[in-house]
């Protein structure tokens, strides 16, 4: 049986400092922990992470796996799993900055394409009770990107990163039940993706790519009750 | 004890704080920042920090969003598709 | 009678376990600011008046922080008595250390912390405030100006670094007007060894550690102290 040791501690510390890691970063950390990553890597990671989760679970932390919506890349995320009076003592961001982040989530979730323009994001500051200056807001958005809570694409559009989506999964489902859509293929929360013109179902880009590749030339909507011919309509 | 005190007196290197800062500037900016008033750029400070931080036993800090803020009750609206 | 006062345990093991976990979480969250965590606040927030259980709960929380996270709880002394900091207990090699990232803001601030601690140590453990500001001009830092990276740099050094425990100031009344003498704070004493500090300084001013007799003596003393 695997024994909890310095390697696991290093992994936790590395996770704390980065928030999330892609597979090659996980590989790098685990190999620094003295594990041979060349054989049965998947199996080893699963065991490694499971053991860590047993140890950090009691303080409401969990390492979870998730896919980045835009490119389908897998990541491991260190997530806080409970909203308590102690967790609310967190001070990485000021209360007003957190209010702005909430407004950002709201407008991203309410937007059909799961993105918001940078100008629209700046205008969210008007909705705050306590005002935030434009420069201050811009610094905050940069910090959010630096800390990997949000992503900015080449057009300057802001979306929630896999870190936010994984950690805030339950929050978004609970607070915005009328807005959230779930991918018909993987059943997970879907903010950015493709939609079917016929039935309105939404799919992650990666999930639908996998599906269509299997289908061959006659593409139909992945939704079992629909199966309308797929018109390559993309909602964004 | 006494021998050490004598050794101290014969110490020929005197530390000068301003000279030290000058050398920090030259070392970190690779001599690019020549005029002392220019000091170090933002990137230089980050670079210096990155070089020396591994020698400190500082702990990485936890950063999270879930549970950092209170939930609002959002008025229910029907989506207009 | 102190035995009875401080030795009380929470009798229900489930209840105790819950408090221990809450304390571990609380310590990690409070460490975000790097300001020493007060016993008074732990009693208020975690033990909710069951102050007499403090030692028992703290002991187990310290064990968990060490066992699971590799963090050591240090109890501070003197004026900072009854407050605690976390330091990293993992012995990491160069490439392992690179796996722990810090953001730009923290990196920049640590750069400044290092320069000041270096000056204090090399200046035989104390520097006068005026002398520090004079020296920092060479790095583009002026006590009354806003700095592009550090903002209100006077506040950062004299208040924030002191609050975090990197620096300690003492008002020197022998000067007119009185000015501050600046020393290493208790966090600095626990986060950085004198040996490492000396070798980093020597790397910068291109000297050998053995060139600095006084500082080398302190390094030796520290080595002996840690062997005991
Ligand atoms: Zn999907
Ligand atoms: Zn359909």
From TrEMBL, chain A:
PROSITE patterns: ZF_DAG_PE_2 (PS50081). It is found in: Chromosome, Telomere; Nucleus. Its main location: nucleus. It holds the Pfam family SMC_Nse1. Gene3D superfamilies: 3.90.1150.220, Winged helix-like DNA-binding domain superfamily/Winged helix DNA-binding domain (1.10.10.10), Zinc/RING finger domain, C3HC4 (zinc finger) (3.30.40.10). It catalyses: S-ubiquitinyl-[E2 ubiquitin-conjugating enzyme]-L-cysteine + [acceptor protein]-L-lysine = [E2 ubiquitin-conjugating enzyme]-L-cysteine + N(6)-ubiquitinyl-[acceptor protein]-L-lysine. Keywords: Chromosome, DNA damage, DNA recombination, DNA repair, Metal-binding, Nucleus, Telomere, Transferase, Ubl conjugation, Ubl conjugation pathway, Zinc, Zinc-finger. GO terms for biological process: double-strand break repair via homologous recombination. GO terms for cellular component: chromosome, telomeric region; nucleus; Smc5-Smc6 complex. GO terms for molecular function: ubiquitin protein ligase activity; zinc ion binding. Its EC number is 2.3.2.27. Transmembrane segments: none annotated. SUPFAM superfamilies: Cysteine-rich domain (SSF57889). InterPro entries: C1-like_sf, Nse1, Nse1_RING_C4HC3-type, PKC_DAG/PE, WH-like_DNA-bd_sf, Znf_RING/FYVE/PHD. Residues 168-221 form the Phorbol-ester/DAG-type domain. Belongs to the NSE1 family. Component of the Smc5-Smc6 complex. This is Non-structural maintenance of chromosomes element 1 homolog. It comes from Elysia crispata.
